[in-house]
Every structure is written in structure tokens, then in C-alpha cells.
Amino acid sequence: MADNPLTGPTWFIDSDSAEVGGFVDKALDGVSTDDTTATAVALFLAVRDGFRYDPYEVSRNRGDYRASAIVGTSSNWCVPKAVLLTAAARRAGIAARLGFADVRNHLTSDKLEERMGTDVFYWHGYSELLLGERWFKVSSAFNIELCERFGVKVLDFDGTGDALMHAYDQTGRRHMEYVSERGSYDDLPLDEMLADFDVLYPQLVGSPSDDEPDEAFAPR
To answer: Which CATH architecture has domain 18-206?
Structure first.
């Protein structure tokens, strides 16, 4: 573990791995690394749109939550995507940590809500990036194609404000509501998170699913 966990690797946020290094090099191709904001934005876009959002496959395997493993996936959900963005930022020299909140998705499909037993997404994960003297909260969960397909506002980040879930969609329907904050973490609190999921989502964690990821956004 690094002396300063906000800038160095941890077990899950293995920013020193070759896989994370390759991801960062590709994301920052043509970007001036002297521009910290441009670096953060490029990494955000690479994670947001490089991995399709999939809320169904919640693994129990600890190794699946390491940034070096997440790089090799094509789809994932908010927490692994936040782990990867946090690791990528640290690799690029940006202090970063994980943030969590409980959010209510007012547009959750009936199918997903039935499987979860609720429309509240507990332990919604995002990254917190230190640019200058300010911490920015940045959610990279929803890829742009998914948002455009279902009329959900795209989460953009330009380094001047937070990029959190939108309260309303493009037509004015209520979308995301932040119910409570869980705070900031230097590394992924996986054991605590999965213990809560076992109680809150007994049918979701570790259970294979044939559901299409996009069905999470199917209109009610």
C-alpha cells in the first residue's frame, strides 16, 4: 500500500499495474499531461464511454474489483467504473479517492426493481478527483450511448463542477435522487458493501443474469 493512498496504489486501486498504465496511455494520447484538468476530463470520458453500463452482474469475486481486471471488461456498473477512474487518475498523478451515496432511481425499470426489491441503489459509487484545491465528485457510470437511447441526460465533466446524477431526464421526468451520502474512501470497502447487498439485494449479488443491461432503462 502506498504511503499516500490518495496518489498511490492500493490492492483494488492498483494504479501501478501494467493494465492501468496501458489504459491511461491510450486515454491520454494527444492530451497535454501538463494540463491536469484536460487529463482528468480525458480519463473520465475514457471510463464513461469505454465500458457499457451493466447493473446486473454484481460479482462476489474480489479480483473482479481490481482496476487492472476492470480494464479488460466491456461492460460494468458504477462501482468498478469508479475504481478504474480513480486508479487512472492516480496513475496520471491526480489525487483521487472513491465516494459513495445511496440514490433513488425514479426511472428504474419494473424488471430491475422487481429483481432488486427497491428503486434505491445503495452504495452508488463515483470518483472524487482533486484539481487545484477542490475535490470534484465525478460519476462515470452511464455511457453516452445508453443515455441518448433512453433520453437520460449525459453526465459531462469539464473540471469546473461536479458530475453527479441528474435529478431529471431530458423530458423533465424525475430521475436520480440522492438519498444519503456514505462518505469518501481511500480504497474500496468491498466487504462492507457486499454484506449490505446480501441483505438489501439477495437476488442480485453473485447470481448470473440473462437480462440485457439496457433493460435497466426500459420505460415503465
So the answer is: Roll (3.10)
